[in-house]
Amino acid sequence: MLKATAYLFLKHSTHRAIPTRYLTAAAELQQDERLQSFRTQEADPSKHSKDHLAQFYTIPLSDRNVLFQHGGLPKTFQQHIKTFNETCLMVREPAVDIINCLKSIDYDKPAVRFVLYGKNGTGKSISLAHVLHYAFKNKFLIVHVPWVGDFMRHCKDSSNSETREGFIDLNINAAAWLLHFRTQNAELLKNPDLKISRDIQWTKRESTAKDSSILELIEHGINRMRFASDCVNILAEEIKLLSNAGICKTLVAIDGFNEFFYPTTKVYTEKKEIVHPNKITLTEGFLNLTKFDWKNAAVIVTVDEMTVKVHEEGTDPSMSHFPRFLLGKHGFEHLDPFLPVNVPLFSKKEHESIMDYFRERRWVRPYPGQDEELYFLSGGNPFTLLDYCKSL
Amino acid sequence: MMRKIGIAFRPHNLLNIQNWLLSSRKILEIRTLSAQASSTTEIGSIDTGAPVENGDSKKNLSKAMKAYLDRAREHDEFMNAQRVEFEIGKRHLANMMGENPETFTQADIDNAIEYLFPSGLYQKHARPIMKPPEEVFPQRKAAEFDETGRPYHFLFYTGRSNFYQVLYDVVEHINEMYKFEDSMTRKNLQPDPMLKLNLSGTEWIAKSALEFRVVETVSDREYNTFVTAMDRLSNMPFAYKVKDFIMEYRVSLMNQSETYDAIKPQIREDGRESVTVYECRRKRAIGNVTVISPGTGKITINGQGISYFEGIQEREQILFPLIFSNMQNKVDIEAEMQNGGPSGQAGAIRYGISWALRSFVDQETMESMRLAGLLTFDIRVRERKKPGQAGARRKFTWKKR
């Protein structure tokens, strides 16, 4: 709006106040006739290439309901899905790069680890969602943690582990995650080849027999919540065995992975002591899955500044969004070697594309100089841009 | 003698304000002399109570005249005493400072006072001063009539003789102009465009200044009349002939050309032009801002991008001068800021950008930037907390008991 203000000032550059009606007039619609192809009809993420960069594609409702029914998209983005009545993602370079890699890597070699990193609000989770959609379409077994913060900071309950001394179970979260896993892989889990490799004795009376299906194991975890955390760990082992055997191809996607290494959590023992993440049962299973000692798998994790910021008041001058800082020594050594993928700020082209999308969805009213002004103000940060567009 | 004063008041005889001050002092002396002369005679005649030779003059002395003379005498005595005191004080001061009292000037006095009575008071007029009594005590008008009560000035009965004298002069000049114009027309001569009176950068003296000059009160309506008459005179084609008279009543505005002269850009190593504004300030923030042209709109603040500021207000502050001067995406900006908070730093950068952009925009844009207030330094600072109050203005909660 600054341009309109400046224009009005120059037009009425006397000392009189500018009448309000002029300001309203400035905000009036001035239809921008630029009709760029900011959408792509290519709805299959495996066919996305560099040609589709900065274009929007729609995830079909059926896919979204399966993939992201129990989370997986950021909250603000979910609000936009509701507002725009469609799930549209922008095809961006990091996601396309990873998809290309996933297409070309040799799955007989140890699992490749990707680390998505970038400043707050650049779209790491959205990129992850894009890759997940690719994996879903290409029949990967998806092991997806929507947000590790839900375990470490917003856990529903915590109890001492019955099987392992000194460990803490997050049973409700674990059961919710099992449900999420079952929903995402509903089709694949019907495969009769997915069997467990050993007898599992839960208690004296309860047990799961060898060669019963994975689905049974998951059902047990959901129904008997006491065992949900252990169930997740056992499931992780079984998935590794199955992948190694070549029965399934697995994609592990974990959002906010650095939280597994951040010493401060909001999980407390009975004595109100803070629990270190490696004393939480769930951590073990997911760290197991992110090792490189298996094949037929790929691992994508994101590291997020938000973890650190939430815990510490004020920002640390040494604060950085790079994986080495966020993962810490142990986390870095755990993941090393990995492929870092930077999620950059918006380029000008991407910015124009998203503004066109907003205008098409009638989310913002156009005015002269809008794109340039907002690009400067948001500094190319997608999240900030969404914030500034709220009032337009 | 009073006619002389009248002449001295005619501003077209004065070259400038300094001369005016000089002459006003002269007038004061004249006034004093006249008052002294008249009062001594009168005092003599009144105090002795003896029969007076000049019986007529005593009879004609009205009550008003007598009261006036008393007042004038008192004032003059007071002023004389003050003047003597000042002279003695000055000599003392000179001795204290180890200077020659004879050559001790007013500037020396000011320096000595500042040295001997250092004052931390913010307002300059609240600090100790030592000035000649003429400057300290307000001037008073001298008698405008002789002992018989007959006024000296022909405009005496207007009540504002000096003011109307000015208007009278204006009209005289206008009439002269008409005559001159007619004669020139007869000769088929046009006014010289080279000599055309240039009044830009100056304005008519304020009402208070006019009042001080004529030693009379002037109403708003009379001041308007004055301005109208002067405007009319100065708009005449041959007004440059009375330039001196007109310029006496004009004061210069702030010297714009000096203040708003753009900084000359320096050529950088990469061949681009850059302008650096040092010590841009606002509130507690201070820093240097460099504008580089041509550029692509890249901005660097303490090594970061626009994300250095988290709020939209600060970001808009920085963007506004660029959009206003239509230079967005045409220049690069580098800023190094220290101290202060976000709004102060953003304001300082905005000021620095605007100040530097003058080198890259045309005169017209620069003028509109000035009108928009972009080139005006923001002097506002945080107001201090007061003792006995919760804050700068906020009071503690008041409870009856």
UniProtKB/TrEMBL annotation, chain A:
Q: Which GO terms describe its molecular function?
A: structural constituent of ribosome
Q: Which GO BP terms, alphabetically?
A: apoptotic process
| Compartments (UniProt record) | Mitochondrion
Can you quote a single GO CC term?
A: mitochondrial small ribosomal subunit
Q: Which Gene3D superfamilies match?
A: P-loop containing nucleotide triphosphate hydrolases
Can you tell which superkingdom this protein's organism belongs to? Eukaryota
InterPro entries attached to this UniProt entry: P-loop_NTPase, Ribosomal_mS29, Ribosomal_mS29_met
Give a yes or no for keyword Cell membrane in this entry.
no
Swiss-Prot/TrEMBL keywords:
Mitochondrion, Ribonucleoprotein, Ribosomal protein, Transit peptide
Q: What is its main location?
A: mitochondrion
The family this protein is said to belong to: Belongs to the mitochondrion-specific ribosomal protein mS29 family.
Which PANTHER family is this protein grouped with? MITOCHONDRIAL 28S RIBOSOMAL PROTEIN S29, SMALL RIBOSOMAL SUBUNIT PROTEIN MS29
Query: What name does this protein carry?
Result: Small ribosomal subunit protein mS29
Q: Which organism is it from?
A: Dendroctonus ponderosae (Mountain pine beetle)
From TrEMBL, chain B:
Q: Which gene encodes it?
A: 109539345
**What are the GO cellular component annotations?**
mitochondrial inner membrane; mitochondrial small ribosomal subunit
Q: Which domain of life is it from?
A: Eukaryota
- PANTHER family reported in the protein's UniProt record: RIBOSOMAL PROTEIN S9, SMALL RIBOSOMAL SUBUNIT PROTEIN US9M
Q: Where is the signal peptide?
A: none
* Subcellular location(s) of the protein: Mitochondrion
**What keywords are annotated for this sequence in UniProt?**
Mitochondrion, Ribonucleoprotein, Ribosomal protein, Transit peptide
* The name this protein goes by in its record: Small ribosomal subunit protein uS9m
| SUPFAM superfamilies cross-referenced by the UniProt entry | Ribosomal protein S5 domain 2-like (SSF54211)
Check the record and name the InterPro entries matching this protein.
Ribosomal_Su5_D2-typ_SF, Ribosomal_uS9, Ribsml_uS5_D2-typ_fold_subgr
Describe the family membership recorded for this protein in Swiss-Prot or TrEMBL.
Belongs to the universal ribosomal protein uS9 family.
Q: Which GO terms describe its molecular function?
A: RNA binding; structural constituent of ribosome
The processes (GO biological process) annotated in the record are:
translation
